[in-house]
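note to self: the first set is below, dont mix up w the second
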Amino acid sequence: MEKIVLITGATSGFGKSAAKLFAKNGYNIIITGRRNDRLVALENKLIDLYDIRVFLLCFDVRDQQATTEAIASLPENWKKIDVLVNNAGLASGLSKIQDGDFDDWNKMIDTNIKGLLNVSRNIMPLMIARKKGHIINIGSTAGKEVYLNGNVYCATKHAVDAISKSMRIDLLEHGIKVTQICPGAAETEFSEVRFHGDKTKAKEVYKGFQPMSSSDVASVIYYVTTLPEHLCINDLVLTSLAQANSYYIDRK
């Protein structure tokens, strides 16, 4: 039976790698993101490489109306979503809270919290109607502790942690799985975005140790969907061997 996965933030990082892995394993893919050119390029690549179907939705998860309209526009046969990967998220800025930038704060809150809710609120009724589905929320080690200058970013990922636990309770009677995956340091566009495009600063973050790659994290995202129907991984923290938590990294 054909399965469908919807992945937010599929234009880079974990989302892009997850799209490739799900496609490789025979899923039909709904890819979403803000950058249409990247979505089109990914769509073409997935179709060329794998015998699957791809549906493209270009919208910003921060925009509630645009999110609702985009998901409502899916043809009926594409609304039978088996897996939702709430991957869209970002860090913006790295400063003490008393020096924080309101634009950075709003960007993180609107993307990491409201964006996840905007998408989920539109997908959950579709899963409830079918009494099946799996929601995977991409959290962070920053949602398990706080670190210097992390403040609002950490707060948004703590919110993802709480929302994931709440989803698990509220959706329990409907037979829907909810998994939170919390990666540590992974070398993607994450730090470049956090430092507002400063590639030099971004590279310093991963100096002296081997961080995870986006494909490493994607392999775990896919893995949690392969368990028997009666099993669910609720919460999973993932780091490279060199990292113990947000504070401790063994840099050689």
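second set (the one i keep forgetting abt)
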Amino acid sequence: MRNVTSDNITDTFLGYFGDDTDPRLREIMVSLATHLHAFARETNLTHEEWQKGLDILRQAGSITTSERDEFVLLSDVMGLSSLVDMINSPEKGTSSSVLGPFHISNPPAMHMGADLKGDYEGELILVSGRVLDTDGNPIAGATLDIWQTAPNGLYSSQDPDQDMYSFHALFTTGDDGCYSFTSVKPVSYTVPTDGPVGEILNATGRHPWRPSHLHYIIKAEGFRSLVTEVFPDDDPYLDEDTVFGVRDDLVMKYESAPASSFPETGFDLCGKVGEDYLVVNFDLVLSRA
């Protein structure tokens, strides 16, 4: 095609596809090019603005490491991560939520009732619940990859003063489907703003705050894996999460409990709790694969 114009460039691009192009790839590329070209025409995109967009992508690539993925963060703050989650979530079961850019693979396996708080300051929380199928039956052998920030609002991969797997654990359910552990109450925190994502947030007048939460990845044979987060109902950023991760069924409530009520068995901290603590019970429901 020699006479390419702003009106026919999209059709010309689509005409270059080979006959053996994978049908799903063709579908995605057709839609992407159609919307991308329409976006440029609709906004009368300038050379300077186009170059700025490329610079943002270059910066995201240069700042991304094995511990921090700026592209994931960019997808998060643009709402794309949450939208993909919602599009692909099953009708039944616990809602999915964003993975985030700071997940670390291969966390240490721990026994039920293990303590993640250690010597860190902050309120003690006792977290428990069950992994269930959509009929309410417990799922045995389900693995729960759980992680959170430290009391300073940083994940271990962000903080050189933390051990790599600080506040990370892997639990496996028994026949009762139950899980339990103690930790420190998570805090609200800001997503990193020292890269291109921060530049976008500042330019658009958006704050970088996320409500406090616990992360979960739950896997069980015969079931769809679930990536999700659980948020307390009293967090000030619950209704304005900068990465759009909150869902109604992912909101839980902390209940205050006296030290004298701490379980006598089943936890590393049995007999060691001298102050009031917080309790939360949250069940996680998996849909079948």
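remember for set 2: The first strand starts at residue 114 and ends at 115.
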